[in-house]
Amino acid sequence: MSSTSAATILSASQLRLTRQHKTVLDNISLNLKTGQIITLIGPNGCGKSTLIKVLLGLESADSGKVTRRPGLRIGYMPQRLSLDQRMPLTVTGFLRLARGAGNERIGYWLDRLSISALAQQSVHDLSGGEWQRVLLARALLIKPDLLVLDEPVQGVDVQGQLELYSLIPQLRDELGCAVLMVSHDLHLVMAATDEVICLNGHVCCSGHPDTVSIDPAYIRLFGARLQQGQKQAPLAHYTHHHDHQHCADGHVEHHAPGKEIL
Ligand SMILES: Nc1ncnc2c1ncn2[C@@H]1O[C@H](COP(=O)(O)OP(=O)(O)OP(=O)(O)O)[C@@H](O)[C@H]1O
């Protein structure tokens, strides 16, 4: 399905949120359609997780509007999920707690995510990467219309990151859902996303990776492209090509044209 003709399932308009005198979200608007994969990127503390929580209705913005399609099923893989260490819980037991999770579906997703061998293992004994896959299975179990992944490759080794990112468009196709994810791994995520939104309190820049990747501004933002004959792209650098400055209290000071800050 072409994302331009697809239905909007979630939109945000002019979101603003301040916490302890710091502007965390400043005039954020976005539109997410069925089948679309949008990735939020930006430095630590730039508001990515907060934006996700506001979009999901877990936190309220001070102003602005979030509209979710009525009845929208959201599978959310949070950045962190603490479990009571004293509670004995196997992976299967944990997944059974998800809404609508029967043994057959649990078995399917464990197999699909290559973690069947962990089915009876205690959740407290999982490695970081294994736990991420279990959390992903949990998000998938509810047959989401929207899959929200907050840093899905945290604690995952490089091979595992490649596998997980290549899985995301497959899951989108299989479920016919939209995906909204947070990532720091620009070079890995480019192939697995339709649109990148670069956040730093406000939206610094955004666009389709194919278009953005041939734009000189993209190269300044995310590093050099693959050169002819080069087998591997250099790791993307996180640098901002800014026409504005972020002040300590979160407000943004704009500069006159020609006075850009790199
Ligand atoms: N309840 C709160 N009270 C005060 N400050 C908060 C609160 N919630 C978030 N913040 C601040 O808002 C900013 C954005 O936090 P957020 O977790 O959204 O960042 P992030 O982009 O997800 O960061 P990271 O990449 O490190 O996960 C941070 O500076 C954080 O300290």
TrEMBL record:
Keyword Zinc assigned: yes
| Gene Ontology MF terms | ATP binding
Q: The ABC transporter domain covers which part of the protein?
A: 10-225
The cross-references to PROSITE patterns, in alphabetical order and at most eight, read: ABC_TRANSPORTER_1, ABC_TRANSPORTER_2
Task: Name the Gene3D superfamilies on file.
Answer: P-loop containing nucleotide triphosphate hydrolases (3.40.50.300)
InterPro entries membership: AAA+_ATPase, ABC_transporter-like_ATP-bd, ABC_transporter-like_CS, Metal_Ion_Import_ABC, P-loop_NTPase
Arranged from A to Z, the UniProt key words for this protein are:
ATP-binding, Cell membrane, Ion transport, Membrane, Nucleotide-binding, Translocase, Transport, Zinc, Zinc transport
The source's domain of life comes to Bacteria
Q: Name one Pfam family in it.
A: ABC_tran
Which SUPFAM superfamilies does this UniProt record tie to the protein? P-loop containing nucleoside triphosphate hydrolases
| Name assigned to this protein | Zinc ABC transporter ATP-binding protein ZnuC
Organism taxonomic ancestry? Bacteria, Pseudomonadati, Pseudomonadota, Gammaproteobacteria, Oceanospirillales
